[in-house]
Amino acid sequence: MSVNEALAARRTCRSFTREPLGGGVLDRLLDRARRTPTAGNCQGVEFLVLEGPDEVAAFWDTSLPSEKRSGFPWPGLLLAPAIVIPFGLPEVYLERYGEEDKVASGLGADAADWPVPYWLTDAAFVAMALQLLVVEENLGCCFFGLFGNEGVVRRRFDVPESARSPGALAIGHPDHEHLRPSTSASRPRRPTASVVHNGRW
Ligand SMILES: Cc1cc2nc3c(=O)[nH]c(=O)nc-3n(C[C@H](O)[C@H](O)[C@H](O)COP(=O)(O)O)c2cc1C
Question: Is residue 56 part of a domain?
Answer without folding.
Answer: yes
